[in-house]
């Protein structure tokens, strides 16, 4: 199935704030930092760990906020292999088994696809904090996207999304 054309980003109705553009070195949420540290440990000298090197039981503390995304390369598409139970409850929609381009939210799809593309193209993790609206939904979250694969090819993305306040008190981390 061919990927539908991307909608015009000018359609966005309300402004979106992303601060900073990449906050991997400044994650506010401690669970995200722990997951990122776990990912780095599992790399064992490689650019990224393989899918087999990751055991979800090792990160039970954040599991409900984690989504596993399968990367299809030709044509490039993203399939949600597993959507975290807390994320599904908060969004009112379980993405498990669905493709990103089938979600029916064009502005959201564009933003997420470009974030995923960045990780797949550069073979490096990426994190952001964003607040604003896509389509008819409001978002307030901190997200980390971690590539999994081997031999310079990303096969999966381990994505963790923590909704909530983007501006915690100085020096305070969410546990």
Automatic annotation (TrEMBL):
Protein name: PAS domain-containing protein
Superkingdom of the organism of origin: Bacteria
InterPro entries, per database record: DUF1457
One of the Pfam families matching this protein, by short name: PAS_5
């Amino acid at each position: 199935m061919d990927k539908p054309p991307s909608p015009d980003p000018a359609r966005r109705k309300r402004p979106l704030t992303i601060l900073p553009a990449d906050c991997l070195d400044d994650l506010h949420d401690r669970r995200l930092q722990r997951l990122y540290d776990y990912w780095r440990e599992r790399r064992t000298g490689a650019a990224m760990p393989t899918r087999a090197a990751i055991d979800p039981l090792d990160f039970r503390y954040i599991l409900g906020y984690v989504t596993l995304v399968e990367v299809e390369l030709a044509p490039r598409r993203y399939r949600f292999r597993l959507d975290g139970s807390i994320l599904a409850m908060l969004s009112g929609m379980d993405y498990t088994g669905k493709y990103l381009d089938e979600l029916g939210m064009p502005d959201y799809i564009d933003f997420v696809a470009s974030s995923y593309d960045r990780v797949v193209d550069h073979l490096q993790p990426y994190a952001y904090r964003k607040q604003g609206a896509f389509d008819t939904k409001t978002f307030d979250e901190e997200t980390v996207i971690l590539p999994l694969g081997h031999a310079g090819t990303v096969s999966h993305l381990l994505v963790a999304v923590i909704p909530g306040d983007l501006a915690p008190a100085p020096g305070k981390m969410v546990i």
